[in-house]
């Protein structure tokens, strides 16, 4: 309509623009982002705190719905097998995301720092999300984890990191099948009950 003005950019605009750049497999540069938004670098830094905090938020904005979809797809399973399947699907989706793989490949040191340490809130958020999955099964009486909920969730996250980032950490090939086997062992899921892959094929523990 005549007289209407474009909404003024803000921190949410910056996150959305950075997310588009990341999903396109391009490097998120603060100068380019500020120019796209029509603001100064100082304003952009004031909004998002810097490149690393912004990247952590962008990656979490992609990770959270990915994990949610993985859990929903595993609804046919129950208890430990459901969690093995959900975490396996989540890992497969992560390993198959070209933008994520490109980021880890081209900026490995930053990626590991933001995703696997306390340098950003990403890891703690993922642990909290895993805790929710564990509690759902525990409250339904379908799971008795070997450790406390938090410790089990933290262990599952660390195990997931080991296999998802295997190429960067140890020069090994990332292998979601091995991750499923490891998760099944931690949750004491019997052999043959470790869920299915994203394409529906059985995944023995």
TrEMBL record:
Domain QsdR TetR regulatory C-terminal: 78-188
TM stretches of this protein: none
Gene3D superfamilies tied to this protein: Tetracycline Repressor, domain 2
Xref: InterPro entries: Homeodomain-like_sf (IPR009057), TetR_C_36 (IPR041485)
Pfam families recorded: TetR_C_36 (PF18598)
Entry-linked SUPFAM superfamilies: Homeodomain-like
Domain of life: Bacteria
Protein name: Helix-turn-helix transcriptional regulator
């Amino acid at each position: 309509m005549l007289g209407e003005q474009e909404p003024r950019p803000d921190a949410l605009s910056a996150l959305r623009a950075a997310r588009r750049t990341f999903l396109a497999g391009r490097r998120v540069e603060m100068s380019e982002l500020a120019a796209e938004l029509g603001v100064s670098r100082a304003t952009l830094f004031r909004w998002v705190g810097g490149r690393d905090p912004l990247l952590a938020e962008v990656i979490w904005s992609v990770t959270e719905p990915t994990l949610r979809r993985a859990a929903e797809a595993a609804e046919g399973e129950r208890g430990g097998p459901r969690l093995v399947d959900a975490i396996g699907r989540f890992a497969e989706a992560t390993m198959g995301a070209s933008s994520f793989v490109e980021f880890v490949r081209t900026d490995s040191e930053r990626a590991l720092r933001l995703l696997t340490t306390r340098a950003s809130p990403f890891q703690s958020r993922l642990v909290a999300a895993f805790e929710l999955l564990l509690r759902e099964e525990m409250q339904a009486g379908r799971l008795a984890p070997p450790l406390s909920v938090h410790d089990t969730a933290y262990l599952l996250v660390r195990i997931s990191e080991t296999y998802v980032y295997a190429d960067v950490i140890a020069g090994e090939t990332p292998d979601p099948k091995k991750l499923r086997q490891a998760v099944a062992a931690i949750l004491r899921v019997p052999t043959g009950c470790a869920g299915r892959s994203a394409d529906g094929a059985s995944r023995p523990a």
